[in-house]
Amino acid sequence: MTARQQVRIGVIGAGLMGKELAGVVGRWSALQQSPVDPVLTAVCDVNAPALDWFRRVGSVQTFTTEYRELLDGSVDVLYVAVPHHLHEKLYVDIAESGVDFLGEKPFGIDPFASATIGDAIAGSSAFVRCSSEMPFYPGAQQAIRYLQQGSAGRIIEAEFAFLHSSDLNPDKPINWKRQTQFCGQIGVMGDLGMHVTHVPLRLGWRPETVFAQLQELVSVRPDGKGGTVPCDTIENATLTGRVGTGTGTFPISLQTKRVAPGEMNTWRMRVVGMDGGVEFSTRYPQSLRVMTVRDGAQVWEERMAGSQSAQPTITGPIFEFGFPDALLQMWAAYLAERAGELGDAFGCATPQEALASHELFDAALVSSASAAAAPVAAGVRRRHTAADVSGVLGRD
Ligand SMILES: NC(=O)c1ccc[n+]([C@@H]2O[C@H](COP(=O)([O-])OP(=O)(O)OC[C@H]3O[C@@H](n4cnc5c(N)ncnc54)[C@H](O)[C@@H]3O)[C@@H](O)[C@H]2O)c1
After folding, report:
1. Is the bond preceding residue 106 a cis peptide, omega within 30 degrees?
2. Same-domain pairing of 76 and 142
3. Does residue 395 form part of some domain?
4. pLDDT digits (tens, 9 = 90+) for 140-162
């Protein structure tokens, strides 16, 4: 057996997601056959106290508040999990330094930032992918394979959604994701959108036009210091697009919602065609539903999804799969692809897919402002301003 290549990983942004990486690396032995052996060696955060959490990870040797210190070749891969307004600066700097990285979505605050990041990556030798872990649920993987095999036949319609509900509580304090200056004019689409576009884009389903209904539901939130501040991001976005393929044109629905009562963290997809259909939701992660016509009867059958995703693990096939497993799968896919050993397995979202998502969200803003369907323009490089956002339901 050949020795596995050690990969030194550094985290930039020691917040919610940065900490998750420590858990992923700690569970690496659950993978059956990874070509690499990742070691978390460095952490960076401008907020020095945030670094302290990482002192429990024995392999971390570098603690810094300056991300440029991690661009000197001392780490092989960076995980960048910082607020959206910082993506452009950091991702461009890292790409120009030639260090490989997995960057958090949405890969820039607007299409200009995303295209600028794309240019820097195109001119760099760095291997770069965008974070999006939900499609790695086994049920989602099986649904994707079903569709790639053409089992649904001519597609009638498709729906993809990512739904949250904690914003239903008006007393939940503000954070940067609820403030346009940090999250972007695209609001919830920047936060949750890459999660719903990853699979359709991978299937080659790029909407040609989109009609968007954007919704403001909570305009003020506690500031955590006894006062209130504006909560100026769009909470919910419902996009209806038209997708043209070689076998016909069909409607696609893409929903991202921060106020979807009862849905804590639900990622779901549903596609039906003339020969069959498939449905999966992380709300019911153990199963997927498949539609077949049997003896003339239309049957939605429930298939057990099991624990195995794109990268085999030692986990018993009958056991349950969860969010940390999806992150492990995403990282296993990233590092396998970086090592040239992904093969036919499902890969992480690409910078091109991130940019295509931004083009879609940009068309959604245009649609909302005009109350009409808008074309999804490739190559759009717009800096968004407040003037780009109008027609929002709840702001009239
Ligand atoms: N993939 C997912 O499921 C998922 C879930 C949540 C968030 N995210 C994404 O992860 C990213 C971070 O979100 P989060 O929830 O972890 O945010 P967070 O606020 O919990 O953490 C962000 C951290 O970045 C630090 N930071 C800010 N500026 C920095 C700089 N210049 N250098 C180093 N550190 C800096 C902050 O101090 C903070 O600790 C965002 O892009 C977000 O969209 C992804």
Report:
1. yes
2. no
3. no
4. 999 999 999 999 999 999 999 99
